[in-house]
Amino acid sequence: MEQKSYPHLLAPLDLGFTTLKNRVLMGSMHTGLEEARGGLKKLAAFYGERAKGGVGLIVTGGFAPNMRGSLYPFAAQMSSGRESRAHRVLTDAVHEHGGKIALQLLHAGRYSYHPFAQSASAIRAPIAKFTPFQMSERQIRNTINDFAKSAELAREGGYDGIELMGSEGYLINQFICSRSNTRYDGWGGSYENRIRFPIEVVKAVRERVGHDFIIIFRLSMLDLVEQGSTHEEVVMLAKALEKAGVTIINTGIGWHEARVPTIATQVPRAAFTWVTEKLRGEVNIPLVTTNRINTPDVAEEVLANGQADMVSMARPFLADSHFVAKAAEGRPEDINTCIACNQACLDHVFQGKRATCLVNPQACYETELVVSPAAVKRRLAVIGGGMAGMSAATTAAERGMDVVLFEKSDTLGGQFNLAMQIPGKEEFKETIRYFKRRVEQTGVTVKLNTSVETADLEGFDDIIIATGVAPRLPSIPGIDHEKVIDYQTFIREQPKLGSRVAVVGAGGIGVDIASMITEPDSHSLDDWLKEWGVDKTIAHPGGLYPHLNKSAERQVWLLQRRSGQVGKGPGKTTGWIHRKTLQKRGVELLGGVSYDRIDDQGLHISLEGQHHILPADQIIICAGQESVRGLAKELESAGKSFHVIGGADKAGELDAKRAIRQGVELAISL
């Protein structure tokens, strides 16, 4: 097989006073280590590993220039010499491996989660708890000075540059848009006045740090909110930023309050590179494009097509710290690909927990989850070739253990083989590909089509049960009717459906099934953008058309026993996307349902004391799972010791994050 090469991705970029070794920018991510005790040392290990893995330029998570700009009380700042000196451990770790790093300066403005929030105007954000104070002229001037001082402190702390967060709806973005700036003084009103704040910030920073320091400006090129900027306005601001001294313009897509998905797995790969491309030729400084670029092939194509000068990837470097090195060595198949699930990164951060990665639990735990050679070589049996089993098997084998992996079906991957067939979850096949590759590389012995009994496990020093889950069938009269099918069978066989379908169970699986059976036939990027009301000309403010609801091709009911909101799915930061998708497709969401019986007429239910018949042609059961623990019970009866991980340990929602992490932790502990 011909080795792949990535000449555009790996080409150096001359910035005049310095050169980046390739066209890869590791985008900003808040990890939660920024505020943790001893967190900077852990961040140093995190960023150091990515620099070792070949990233051209790293951008940190956001640090506030002052207290009022912090995201929440006691959040990370860069506002004192002590803080600057503390960052040396981090910048030294990156420079040790020949990398470059920029500190992101982020003033949260009205997104601050504290009562001292301030913004261009006293308008509360729809996702915020506090109404901000309108900044006075003096406060604006002081904030501009604080940005400049923070940039100077970053330079003293060893940083190669800074990134000014001017997108996603944070303070700088709040000044730019009439949505959040209704001032009548010199900082509001006309567009020229509204962009005065970001331009003054850049000028002040450049004056303070000199000419040989990188200033990246994260420019919101597509706001995706009402009263946002038009493309003409974005061009005007970009030219002014270049003139003020910006080195690189990075693309920002969508405010946090926008109701259009921008980075979730449902978003097509490289879905917004056209936005950056529209600015090409308008300025003479490098442009960075971003969002859902997760393989070197996609990145190379974007650059080869001339859509940008660099690509920004953030979550892909949680998934694999050596993404760039593997691409440079012509080994893209060895990359652990980001599947854009958000479950361990964004969801964790919004819950106040440390970020990590579903497919790579060692992300942000580099100093804690250390895979070291085993003191004694042991023989290990792993039963179940799903995510938990493969995670445990490959980690143990990496430690030098002799591992045999048993799988009763004819392929590895477990529940991910089903998940990857759900529209919008195709990325899951990448995780199966990566772990299969790891199984080969670490020398795990695989036995497919093998059902294991207790007698087969003689001679093993340790036994790991990772036998997964089976669908749970609720006890509804008529559950064995021919109309009824469980979700696993439905996904595997994909039988032809009638015009009316009832989905029983509105957890993550029920939402996936409802999405799957209402998925439109066309999957082009233009169709996806149109479905979400995105205006590719960006002639409308914020780049939005009015949303158009499609007429449903079939009647679908999504049902749950529990009262309250239906159809969110498990993800904290992606639940609204699932719900909005189902609503746009005309799915009827019903909570507080009692299931009475199933017969030829359909599904009989009770809702708010009233009896109803849903005349469903098919009834798909998504009512949870049960752990498959038959072998575990046999071993227990025989007095054998063993470990249970993954779905076999706890069914609940299908939790790949827990399953993969359990596998790694257990294998490290043996």
UniProtKB/TrEMBL annotation:
NADH:flavin oxidoreductase/NADH oxidase N-terminal domain mapped to chain residues: 9-333
Residue ranges annotated for the FAD/NAD(P)-binding domain, each copy included: 379-633
GO molecular function: 2,4-dienoyl-CoA reductase (NADPH) activity; FMN binding; iron-sulfur cluster binding; metal ion binding
Keyword terms of this UniProt record: Flavoprotein, FMN, Iron, Iron-sulfur, Metal-binding, Oxidoreductase
GO biological process: fatty acid beta-oxidation, unsaturated, even number, reductase/isomerase pathway
Listed cofactors: FMN; [4Fe-4S] cluster
Family: In the N-terminal section; belongs to the NADH:flavin oxidoreductase/NADH oxidase family.
Protein name: NADPH-dependent 2,4-dienoyl-CoA reductase
Gene name in the database record: fadH
